[in-house]
Amino acid sequence: MRALGAELVIVPSDHKRITEGLIKEMIATARDLAGEPGSYWTDQLNNHDGEAGYHPLAEEIWAQTEGRVAAFVQAVGTAHSLLGTADVLRRHRPSMRVVAVEPSESPVLSGGGTGGHRIEGIGLGFVPPLWRPEMVDEIIGVNSDEAMAMARRLSAEEGIFAGTSTGANVIAALGVAERLREDEAVVTLAVDSGSKYLSTELYAEPV
Q: pLDDT under 70 in the chain at which residues?
């Protein structure tokens, strides 16, 4: 980001953990910065346009699986990717199973308490404002260590170079797949590139 000319404002975490306090401080910082001339804040958590961006992805999933997809699994940050994709898939298949993934250390979506974890991009520590629980059939918790281990496996064994939330997605999707028929498919997302995590514990010292 600096190489592209950005001036970064760093909000320090609590011992590299994602917590409710960290997320809320980041939001407050973004809100303050948006008050400066020439600034624009998308207010990601409250942006109702976020889900629509995933509608074409859902159509691509349906086409590429030739209608075999019976379950969609996705980790929850804003919830846009899960709900936006599920909306369209359920138009094609009303019985589509929709499974949310959250850090087991901070199981707020499933009614537990807030806590610190190390899966970047998900698990805000509070329920996202645009969360729609009626859309979700199941919530699966995955802990940070397991998610990191799976992300490393994906890179080393499958050539899928991604981040920790992708590891969490794959763990949950494998569990869901065990319950499906042989002619049914489960789909999850490789959320981002592992290049963003080279300086973190995920890839700095692979186990």
A: 205-207
